């Protein structure tokens, strides 16, 4: 069980093609010791290295993406990324970690 005293000091952002959404969400849900919750947004994106699977995406030059954001402890974020690098080896999944100065609830 997750130690409730761990500082929620970073924001982990994951971005992937929409076809990978369910697999990525399943990984997060399987690890409540690392991830207490997350927000998911459907976005569009493109990059020079991106593979555009559909003809429509190729014409538009961008694809349907999913952005998942979670606030967690930095050590847990690194463990989660290590896990994903083993289980979901895919250059189409991008991530970044940024510091969180403060995190809390209004009630």
Annotation keywords:
4-stranded antiparallel sheet; Alpha-Beta Plaits
Helix/strand-derived category reads alpha+beta
Which strand order spans the largest sheet, edge to edge or round the barrel? 2-3-1-4
CATH topology assignment: Alpha-Beta Plaits
Quote the beta fraction: 25-35%
The parts where pLDDT drops under 50 for at least 5 residues are none
Largest sheet features: 4 strands, antiparallel
- In total, the number of domains comes to 1
Fraction in helix: 25-40%
Order of helices and strands: EHEHEHE
The geometry reads as elongated
> What is the terminal-to-terminal distance?
24 Å
Give an account of the 3D structure.
With 107 residues, this protein is of the alpha+beta class. It has a single domain, classed as 2-Layer Sandwich (Alpha-Beta Plaits), CATH 3.30.70. It has helices at 21-29, 55-60, 74-87, and strands at 10-17, 39-45, 63-72, 94-99. A four-stranded antiparallel beta sheet has the order 2-3-1-4. It is elongated.
List the helices and strands and how they pair.
Blueprint: E1 10-17, H1 21-29, E2 39-45, H2 55-60, E3 63-72, H3 74-87, E4 94-99
Antiparallel strand pairs: 1-3, 1-4, 2-3
Q: Nutshell version of this structure?
A:
The chain has 107 residues and is α+β, with helices and mostly antiparallel strands. The chain has one domain: Alpha-Beta Plaits (2-Layer Sandwich), CATH 3.30.70.
């Amino acid at each position: 069980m997750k130690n409730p005293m761990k500082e929620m000091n970073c924001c982990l952002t994951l971005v992937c093609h929409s076809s990978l959404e369910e697999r990525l969400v399943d990984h997060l849900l399987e690890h409540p010791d690392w991830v207490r919750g997350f927000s998911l947004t459907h976005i569009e994106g493109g990059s020079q290295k991106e593979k555009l699977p559909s003809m429509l995406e190729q014409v538009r030059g961008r694809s349907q993406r999913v952005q998942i954001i979670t606030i967690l402890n930095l050590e847990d974020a690194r463990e989660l990324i290590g896990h994903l690098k083993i289980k979901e080896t895919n250059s189409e999944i991008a991530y970044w970690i940024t510091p969180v100065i403060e995190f809390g609830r209004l009630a």
